[in-house]
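note to self — DONT lose this again. spent like an hour looking for the file last time. sequence + predicted structure for the chain T wanted, 99 res
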Amino acid sequence: MSFTGFTPSDFRVFDIPGFKPRMEAIKTRIRPKLEAVGRELLPDVARVGGAEAFAHAVREADRGDSPEERRRRVERARPYSWERRIDELEAAIEEAANG
C-alpha cells in the first residue's frame, strides 16, 4: 500500500465506543497508512539523519484496566514528581540568588 493520506473518515475511528472495537478499527484503517508513510519516508529520513533508520507504528497494549484506573494511577504518581521538581527549582533559584 502506498500512502494516500488520511481522510476525515479515518479519524472517526476514535469515536467508536469500546476499547476493543476502536482498536480493531485503528489496526485496520490507521495502522496500514502509518506503516505506508513510514516506508515512504524512511529512505529520506535515513539520508538526512546520516544513519540507518527504522519505521515503527506503535501498538497499543490492552492493560486490562479501565481508562479511569490508568488516570488515577498517573495522578497518584504525578504529585511526587512535580513536588520534587518544584523543590529542586526553588533550591536552584535560591542558590543563584545567594550565589
